[in-house]
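User: what does the whole thing look like in 3D?
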Amino acid sequence: MTQTDGSPFAPHTAAETAAMLDAVGVDTETDLFDIPDAVAFDGEFGIESRSEQAIRGELRRLFARNDNLIEFMGRGHYSHYVPSIVDHLSDRAEFLTSYTQYQPEITQGFLQALFEYQSMLVELTGLPVANCSMYDAATALAEAALLADRVRQTSGHRIFVPEHLREGKRLVLENYVDGAGLVVESYPMDDGNVDHEALAELTDEETAMIYAENPTVRGTIEEGLSEVGEIADDNEALFCLGSDLVALSLLEKPATVGADVVVGEADVLGLPTSYGMGLGIFATRESFLRQVPGRLVGVSEDADDRRAYTLTLQTREQHIRKERATSNICTNQAWVALRAAMHIAALGPDGLVDLATDCVRNAAALAKQVDEIEGYQAPVHDRHHFREFVVHTDQPAAAITADVEAEGYAIHAIDDHLLQVCLTETNAHATDGLVDAFQEAA
Amino acid sequence: MIYDQARYTEGDTHEPLLSEKDATTVAVGETDSPLPEELTRDELILPGLSEPELARHYTRLSQMNWSMDSGPYPLGSCTMKYNPKFTEDVAADRNAAIHPDRSADSAQGNLGLLYGLQEYLATIGGMDAVTLQPPAGAAGEFTGILVAKAYHDHHRNDRSEVIIPASAHGTNFATAAMAGYDVVELPSDEGGRVDLEALKAAVSEETAALMLTNPNTVGLFERDIVEIAETVHDAGGLLYYDGANLNALLGRGRPGDMGFDIMHYNVHKTFATPHGGGGPGAGPVGVVDELAAFLPSPRVRETENGDYERFKPDRSIGKIHGFAGNWLVLAKAYAYIARLGDEGLSDASAKAVLNANYLAERLEMDVPYGPFHHEFAATAGDRDAADVAKRMLDFGVHPPTTKWPEMVPEAMLTEPTEIESKRTLDTLAEAFNNAYSDTDDAIETAPSRTTASRIDQVSAARNPRLSWQSLDE
Amino acid sequence: MSFDVPDDLSYLESHEWTTTDDPVRIGITDFAQDELGDVVFVELPAVGDTIEAGSAFGVVESIKAVSDLYAPISGEVTGINEDLFDQPELVNDDPFGDGWMLELEPSDQSEFDELLPAEEYRDQIA
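Assistant: Here's the predicted 3D structure for the full assembly of 1041 residues, as C-alpha cells:
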C-alpha cells in the first residue's frame, strides 16, 4: 500500500493526480463537481477508517458473539457439506470479480458454467427451460405467480398456496402479486400433505395458479402430486411445484406429475448455512419461454463456426422491454448458481442420490429415536420425510426450545406444542446429544 | 497492448460441456430405497467426474473469462471497482454461518453487523432508517416503490402514476409496472437534465413518485434538484433516488439532504462487493423518518443494554426476500465501508470523478453532455458503438456500456471508477481511440483475440437452445 | 436509403400496411423491418379473435428491440401467417409478400379513410 490517506484502493500518487488535474485543466478535484452549495455535504459521517487487520479482528470478535450452537434447522434454509473444491474454484477471481456477460465473446467461461447449471436443472426438473437464477425460493415463487398471470392459457386472479407455507414466502408472494391484482389464498393440508379434496373444492375458473411443495416446509414427502396437476388442469390453472436440488434427485420428477413451473431452493448445494442468503430455481415449459423472468444462456456459433454461448432472449428483460419486461430482475445470484453447479458436478448423480436417500433414511431414524423419549411424539405427520420432521411436545415448545438452546442446540418451535428438527450430514454427529437435551428438557 | 485470451478448442467447440465428458445414469429408488417406487423418480442422468477433472474443467473456464482482476471494466452505470480480498475472509467467518431463524439472543454477532451496516448506510445517504433485505438494486427499487405505495394508501391517497426520466435505467420502468403503476416518461432538456417545465406539467394528484438518479445516467448533476423536490412534494408525491450513481456523491452530497424521501443503494457498485458474473448483489433501501414504519420486516435495533433485537416496523409492507437478504454480500459491504471511512469514501468519489474527466480528455470521441461526474457518454458518431466496443476487446480492455442512454446516439457510457491508475487510463484511452479510428472491416469483424469471435445473436434468439439436452435434438 | 412503399397499400404512421380487399392482409413495412434489424420472433393473435383499429394486436421482436403491432382497421382475424413462427426472417426478406402477418375481415369500411395513402407514408419516412 503506497497511500496513507484517501481510498486505499485508488492508486494515484500525488504526481499522477497533479498531472491529471493539469490535463483536465482544473486545480483540484472539487472543481469538477457541479453540486449546488444548497445541497452540498461538507460534514462527516463519523466513520473511522480502520486497517484490514483491525477490521478482521473487530468482526471476528463481533461474530463470536453468536452462540456456538449445533443447528438442527431447516424450513427453507439448509446446511449440507460443501466440498472444498467449490470454494477454491468459485473463488477464482476470473469468476468472482467478473460481471454480467454483456460481451459474450470475452466471457465464454462463465456463460458455459451457467449453461451447464441450466442443463442440470432441466434434468432434475424434467422441464426444458431453466433460467440461470432467481434471488431465492420466495421471489421465484412470486415470479411464477406473475408468469401464471401473463400466459394466455390461464385466466383468473387466485393463487393457491399450502396453509403451512412458510410465512416469509407468503409475504413476499403477496407483495409481488399485489400490483397485478392477484390474491393469495390458502388450501388446507391433510396430515402434512395437500388435502386434495379440499383443494379441488376451492379451485375454480378464477384460479390462476396452484402451488405445492415437495418436500413440504415441514419435511413431509407428498403423495398424489399428479392429482394436484389434474386439479390445476381442470381449472386451466398453472401447477407450480416447489422443491430443492437434493430432493429433486430422488423424489417424483416434476414434469412427470404435471408441473408447469418448478421453483425452490437451489442454495441447498453450493452454499453452506449463510443466514438465509439463497438461490432460487425457475424452470418451466417451452411454451412459456418468452414469459420467463431473468437471464437465459443459449448456444450459438461464432464467426469461426465454433460453438459459443450467449445471453439470449434479452428482449424479455428490463433493459430492452422496460415497463413491459417479464420482471425487473437484473443482478441475480449468478455466482451462487456457479457454486451449485460445481457442487452437483462434484457429487455426481450417484453422490447426489445417496445424499438424498440419506435425507430420507436419517430423518426417519431420528424421528424414531425422538419418539421414544417420554413427552415427545414424532413424526407428527404419518408420512415419509425428507431431512426434517415435526415433533409434538407435551411441554410447551417454547420452553423446550430455550432449554435445548441452553444445552447447545438450535431447533425450530413452530407452534405451542410443535417443534421441527432438521438433520443432514453436517449435524448427524450430534444427534445423541440432541436426544439427551430433549430428555433433559422434558 | 495486445491481448490474447485463452482458448481451449476441440474441433468446433471450446471446452467440452460436462455432459460431453461424462453422462452417468443412476437408476433411482430401486434396491434398498427407503421410499416406495411411486414416490421416486426413475432415473437421473448427470455428469460424474473426478475431482481432478472438475478442477481442470472450471479452471479452464475461468481462463476464458474476463473479470475486474483481469483489466479495466469501464461499464457506465455499473461502477465496476476492485473487490478487496479481505472482505471475502470476513464474510467467510465460520461463526457467522448461522441459520436466520436463530433466536436473537443467540445471533448477536450477525444482528450487530446488520445494525452497524444499517447505520453506516443511513449516514452516508442522509436517511433515517434502512432495510438491508432487498437482494439487488432492482429489488430495492421495488421495495422503495412499495413503501411509497403503502404511504399513499395509509393516507388514503389513490395515486396511479410514477414519473421516470426517459434516460433512466430499464429497471425503473419495470419496477413501476410491477408495482401496478402507470409510467409517465419525462424528457430531458437541451442540457441533458430533467426538463423542469415538463416535470411541472407531468405532476398531478396521480403522482405517487418521481424516480431519479443523481448524477443522472450521463453523469450530470441535477442542478435544479431542490426545485424538483419541491415540485414533487407540492403535488403530494414522493421523491425516489436510484443509487446506481452514488459513487459520484460519496462525502460530497447526500440524497437525504437533496429532498429525496426514499433511496436504494447498490452495494455491489458503490461498496465494492464482487459482481460474481451477474450477482449476488444487494439493494438496501433508506427512507426518511416519516416512511420508516413501512419498511420490510424484520429490521434490527439496539436495546437499552446495548444488545441487538429484531423488530417489525409498525406498518411494515411485509417481506421482499424469504429471509434477511444476501447476508454474505452485506458483510462484505460493511467491511469495505469500515476500511474506507470518511476520508476514503470522499476520496473515492473525488478520484472517480477525476478519472472520468481525465479519460474523457484523452478520448477522440465527443462527449455531448457535461459537466459530467464519474461517468460520461461519449458518442461513436457515424460508427456503430457496438462494433467499436467489440474491437476494444482485442486491445485487452472491456468496453463501456453501449447504445444507452438513447439521448446520446451511438452512446459509449463510460465509468472508469477511482481504482484505475493514470497509466491504466492511458492504456484504456488508447484502446478506445484505436478501435474508434480503425477500419470498417476491422470493427465489423472484431473481436478476434478473444476466446470466441463475433457470436451470432440472431440465430440464438430465433432458435433458442438453453440446455445440453437441446443440443441432441 | 430508399425504402419500398407499394402504391396499392394503405399505411399507418406506426409502419403497418394493409391491403384493401376483404379479407385484408396486414404486415409491417420495409422501413420498419430495417429499423428493427433481424426479426427473431413475432407474436400474433389467434384466428377468431376480434381486433380494434389502433390497438395492439401483437408484438415483433428483434435482438435489440420489441415493438407492438397496431391494427390499421377493426375486424375478426381470419388467418395468421404461421410460417413466421419458424421463419421470422420472412418479415425482413419480404415484408410486403411472404412476410405478411394477419388476415382480417373488416367490420367497418369507413376506417379505411383514416389510413395513410402510399405518398403520405413515403413522405413520412423520408
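In plain terms: Chain B touches chain C at residues 403, 457-458, 461-462 (CB under 8 Å). Chain B has 15 helices and 14 strands.
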